[in-house]
Amino acid sequence: MTRSTVTRTMTSANNLAPAPAVATSGDRAPRKKSRNSAAMIGGRKGIVWRSAIAVVVAVIMAFPLYWMVVVAFSPRGEVFEPTLRFWPSAWTTENFQRVFELYPVATWFGNSVVIGLFVTFFTVIVNLLAGYAFARLRFRGRNVLFLLTLATMMIPIQAIMVAQFRLVSGLGIYGSYWGVILPGAAAAFGIFLARQFFIGIPDEIVEAAKIDGAGQIRIFLQVVLPLSKPLIAVLILLTLMGSWNDFAWPLIALSDNQLFTLPIGLLYLQNQTAPNYNATMALALISVIPVVVLFLSFQRYFVQGFARSGIR
Amino acid sequence: MTALTARGRGSAALSPRPRAARRAARLRESLVGWGFLAPNLALMAIFLFLPILWALQLSFQDSQGFGSPEWVGLKNYARLIGDPVFWQSFGNTIVFTILTVPITMVGGLGLAVLMNSVLPARGVFRTLIVLPMVISGVASGMIATIIFYQSNGIINKVLSAVGLNPVAWQSEGWPALISVVIVAIWLRIGFNMIIYLAGLQGIEPELYEAARIDGAGRWQQLRSITVPLVGPSTFFLLIMNVIASFQVFDLIFVMTGGGPGNSTSVLVTYAYRNGFQIREQGYGAAIGIVILVITLLFTLVQWRTSRMRDQVG
Fold it and tell me: Where is this region: Disordered (chain A) (predicted)?
């Protein structure tokens, strides 16, 4: 039963424990091995061709982000003038000034931060507890519950949003931070990451603690958690990013302009009667920078997390 | 709690009836297990299972806005069957999935092979390919709106500059759908590459060596070693990509809003439109139930297949 696909493939995607360098930017660790297998696939002969392809791909992948920056710093309307240009005629910060003047951008940013931190706090705790139960505790109904939890990952919010909207209204938390935070914490993907990690912890460590007379709760808090820092890092980063970028549910649950998160604020800008695309890109850039910085600083954790949880 | 457990353990060792003691220990472990799961179960019950039941109930009602709901039996579902926009959204969902999934997966494998080979500045390339994954769907959609802008967007300007006709990305159905497909691939290909890269690094280099000694060319090595050996990754990605495509919302909502006409409307955006824009919440809930059923069917097929694979492999 527990051998369901997602877990199976996640195992095959490799084991979490000692942070294997799957595809991190750091070329340090994996270099030797990859170089070996690389030599098998093509050797050094095609290196020019491969580099050329890589450059083309990289340019295509980077272009939209580059263009966001260009539009954000261009004089208003310039990008839609008939002249073809890949560079602003003059770099300007007027779009940023405008967007801060006209909209409560700082408030939106703060909302995103507050909601992100709360969602992350609750989600990570729930995920750790549930993942540990599924991985290392034996109890009646475990497999069925695990299957059920798996299935919830597949449910798109749009399937139940009407009912969820009524539920949140009924609970009296519609239009408040909690209306976004609590449903957000019901996300299950981290449970699988956690379960996978906890399964990988050697039995001897847990058994030794048991012989010393520790109960499950103490084992979890004092033995397992201190060993789980990489897992916790991955969970925090992925949950934070997911919440920061979340759109569909906040769109429904937030009606007050002062409570908007950045993605909803972005939509609000675009929905103005005469949308100012330069201002929109300025706000988009503001909303994107924190996740990009987080990603570049902790790339290894992100990549590991992606590889195992399969979000997106 | 710890003290309790410890004492229980002590008495179990001394107990004249070990079976009863063992049963007590198992019960205790069960309680601990359920305790660890309780927060998760509570959240799932309140914010997922309850809404599912409620959605089911709503789908049998005629409720526009907040007026008192009226029980209409299967009327909403009957209306679905006769609703051309529903079928168009259904068809678009399928077309979108068929267009995005294979390209993303083949492209992801290609990039993984490339990134697994000798390459200068490989880390930089990898980072650039993975980076779009962390960009929100809303921001991506807005950037794309500007890039694909019909009158003097950068793509159409470049097309004109090289002597081609500009494309009606926003006023014609197919180009609009294609533009969303392109952005979805851009967002997801990095994820596919990561998974394949992990799969590739598990392949023994000796296999390629042996194949080369047998005179296999590069293409043959790819076909008879690489592709079969990344099978598990392929299976995993297939599921993940199909689900992601089936649920594509942010991009379409921001880029096209389902238009022009209904040519990029998909099931999830159509459900949203009925639930929150037209405010026919009963009908919206019925569409949601259909989405749910399709998702569950797909999940079931996937479990079946994986069990079969377990037995075969």
Answer: 18-37
